[in-house]
Amino acid sequence: MFFTLIFALTTMTSSSVQTAAPALEYAPTLASAQKAYVAGDWKLATSSFNAVCPTLPENERAECALWGILALSQTGNSADFTHAALRLDSLIQASSPKTRVYSDLYMTKAQFELYLGKNDKAFASWKQAYEAAEPHQYAVLSQVCESIQKNYTNEEVSEYCGKVKKAQTTSTASASSSSASVIAITKEASSSSVSSESLEPTKSGWVIQLGAFSLHESAQIMVDNFKKRNISVRIAEKIASGKTLYLVQTPLFPTREAAVDYGARTFAPLNLDFIPVKIP
Known about the structure:
Layout: H1 14-19, H2 30-38, H3 42-52, H4 58-73, H5 78-94, H6 102-115, H7 119-132, H8 138-151, H9 155-174, E1 205-213, H10 216-228, E2 234-240, E3 243-249, H11 256-266, E4 275-279
Antiparallel strand pairs: 1-3, 1-4, 2-3
Helix pairs in contact: 2-3, 3-4, 4-5, 5-6, 6-7, 6-8, 7-8, 8-9
């Protein structure tokens, strides 16, 4: 069971991963559910969100429920994916267009349908997402549109992909440097804690690998969370057995020692595991 999901929920606070309670030791909290999600423990994340979401204020439940749906869709079990799709449809039906994550709901639906080969329906859902989107969502919308275009070529799709790409460019150009600024999905987050010289890209070197995900969306959540901490990470793609893995990594370091030293200084205090990896 494998599919590629692009969109990202970016509301996880930087403290969520740092202070979340250890799994299975305490009753689930939103923070511990998010921590399980970032760690790729999809079953624990799903059960945790299922337990936590009903306890939240009503205006926060839709977003929480979407986290749970995303986790359920990634367990690798086809029955879970089907269940996630059904839950998503129910959530959309129960949500007002004014819901903060309304565009995200339809963006997710579009990608579910694209995975199932329902390309025309995927585009229809994408248009719903586009109509409800805020400027900060244009970058992801553009990538989803490009994915649809690869599988469903017609004039209207091309027109909308061009439209959202233009909107993304305009939004990026006028955005401030705040955390709400639109940033290209694969662009490295800026870092104030590391010199640009030490992170200068080279043809080969070492990186710290922080996670490997089958879904782009999962990797992007981790990137967004590190970005809020002013920690520079990026998403690298790796093809293995015909499948794409999305690797969350630091930029390149010239030596293994430099990479390990940076990991010890930056990630160890956050209680995060890190692995030095050689890049050819």
